[in-house]
Structure formats: structure tokens, C-alpha cells
Amino acid sequence: MIPWLLRHLGSLAQQMEQHSAGDSKVYLTARIALAAVISFLAAILLGPIAIGWLKQHFRERIDSASETLNQLHADKANTPTMGGIFIISAVVIATLICGDLTNLYVLTGLFVAIGFCLLGAYDDFIKLSTSRNGIRAKQKLAIQFLLAGIAVGMLYFEQSGKPYGTDFVFPFGNLVIPMGVGFIAWGMFVISGTSNGGNLTDGLDGLASGCAIFTGAAFVGLTYVAGHAAIAEYLTVPFIPGSGEFAIVMGALVGAVLGFLWFNCYPAQVFMGDAGSLPIGALIAVSALITRQEFLLVIIGGVFVIETLSVIAQVSWYRLTGNKLIRCSPLHNHFLFQGEHEIKVVTRFWIGSAVLAILGVACLKIQ
Q: Average of pLDDT values for 148-157?
């Protein structure tokens, strides 16, 4: 909305272009900050209304396969869930106001946010309204791949003609692996995997929210850098024209999750549910695909990766040996089973996420 208005104000727009940043013609840095503020305020204002409505219709049911875990989480029963609806609502509102809606990256971000939110909301609805544990795993994964395929198709259309646009780029060593049309399959895997990683991390009050803020903030910077020719050249990262606009979507995501954390911190007044965890992970993955920084995604989003690997390792080890590798997966549950307080576990995971975000960004200067 703001870019459209300024483009139609003639002389004012021309004056602003002289002071613009990156490849944006209308104050990109200011719009990123404004998007974060708007989404934060929207989440704060929508929160009480949404929580009141969710409390009447959608309350958490504690019914995992572990009786011990059910006992540890017994006090969380009947907490409103599906709070991701007002997270994504805040993201969409801020993006529509601050983003350039002629930019395909912004449109891709909106599609991913809304599409994965609807999928997650439907999964939450099935869990809460029936005795089933949500959508069947294969069906859910198939829909994730379908949504991811559409999103990556949009990215491929936009980036296939740009230098490094569909290549796998290591952040050091100047190693580049051309992928061509294989970028589509790779992107589907990255988006679906990161989306599920965010979902697995969402198990304690404020855990996924806090980690998403640190990871998202790092990718706000990376998307801005990728869209700024001078800074991209200085840091020797791929310059992807137009990608800076996606920093507005990521800024809106960080602001919205920060506002959500106001209500989600211990003891949580609301849970994000799959309606929040799936689109948050997917948007982070899209930002990595746009900037060609999937390698750094593994580092910056290391908490999501470790949580996912802990589940894979637990299941694989149990099938091979009949014994558990850790006391309970995902990893955060292992520490709960050891007697650690939830607040301590969450805080330490936040610290780990912050350190990994810093380390990932620092890798840009390792050549």
C-alpha cells in the first residue's frame, strides 16, 4: 500500500528515490521497521480478542502417547490454541500496508503464510473436534509439498534468470552447485522440512516463539543484504534483485511473533498450534531459498534442526534396538523428564537460538 501511494505521488516519490536503499525505490529500511511495529501492535491488539474467541471454541487437549508427558503438561489442558491465526493475520496486515504488492517475493510470502496457516488450522481443528491426532501424516505431508511446490514454482519463475538464483551456494569456499529445475524439488523439501521443524519445536510455553524471533531476525538481515547490491558485493553473497522486499514480510513475522510471545510466555495464555508453527517455519525456509542461504538456515535455525533430528534419531534407534536414545523426543521433552523446570529449558533454548543466529550471520565473512 505505501509503495503504491508513493509511486502515485509523483514528485515526492522522485525525491524519495534519491535516498532509497538497495534495489527498492521507496525507503526499504523504514518500511521493514514499520512492518515490524505494525505487526507487533496488531498482534497485541488482536490477542485479547482472539484469545477470548479461541477460549470458547478451541482449547488444548493433552493426549500424547506418553503418560509421563501428559502428567507434566496436565496444567496446560484447556488453554486456548490456534493462536497462529492472529500471528499470521498480523503478518498479512503489516505486509499489505508496507510491502510492494507488485513484487513476486512478497506475493509468495503472503501465499505461504496464508496457505500453511490454513493447513495448520485445519489440522488443529481435526485434533480438537475428533479423537484423531490431526490430519493423517501422509496427507499432511502431501499438502505441505503441494503448497511448497506452488511457492517454489513462483520463486523459480522469478529467480531462474538471475545469477546464482537457483544455485546451491556455500557461504564459504566460493563453491556453487547449479541445480536448474532441480531447485523446485529441493525447495519443496526445504520448506516442508523447516515447517515441520517449527511444528516439532512448539512444545513448551514460548519455546517456538522465542526461537522464531532470533531466527527470523537473522533472515530479515539476510534478505535485506541480498537485495542491496553494494552490501551483497561487500559480503560476497548472491545479489538477488527484488529480494529486499521480502525483508518486509520477515520483519512483519518477527514483530507478530514478538507480540504473540506477550501472551505465549510462561504460563501461556494461548498456544500457537499448527496454525502458527507451520507457516512460521515455512516463511523462514522461503527467505533462505530467496537469498540462496539454505546452508546458513541449518546453522541459524539450528534449534529447529536439532529438535527434528532428535525425533528422527529416537524413532530410528527404537526400531533398531527396541530402546530409547533419549528419555522423550523432541529434545526439549528430554530435559523436562530429567526434572528441569520449563522456564529454564525454554530460556536455554532461546540462548542457543540467539548464539546460532549470530554464528550463522558471522559465517558470511568466512571466505
A: 96
Q: How far apart are CA 254 and CA 245, in angstroms?
A: 15
DSSP structural state of residue 336: H
Q: Is the separation of the CB atoms in 244 and 24 below 8 Å? A: yes
Q: 82 vs 40, 105, 177, CA distance in Å? A: 18, 26, 40
Task: State the SS3 of 260-276.
Answer: HHHHHCCCCCCCCCHHH
In 3-state terms the chain splits into helix, strand, coil percentages (rounded to 5) of 70, 0, 25
pLDDT > 90? residue 50: yes
CA distances to 102, 247, 287 from 229, in Å: 20, 15, 17
Q: What are phi and psi of 228, to 5 degrees?
A: -115, 110
Contact 260, 87 (CB under 8 A): yes
Q: What is d(CA 206, CA 354) in angstroms, rounded to the nearest whole number?
A: 14
Determine the number of helices (DSSP H) and then strands (DSSP E) in the chain. Answer: 16, 2
- The Cα 193–Cα 252 span in angstroms is 22
Consecutive H or E run containing 121: helix 104-129
Collect all residues with Cβ–Cβ distance below 8 Å to 160 and sequence separation of at least 6: 166, 183
User: How many alpha carbons fall within 13 Å on the CB side of residue 41?
Assistant: 8
Residue 161: which pLDDT band, with cuts at 50, 70 and 90?
confident
Question: CB–CB of 113/283 below 8 Å?
Answer: yes
pLDDT at 284 over 80: yes
Q: Which CA distances in Å does 177 have to 180, 182, 183? A: 9, 11, 11
Its pTM stands at 0.92
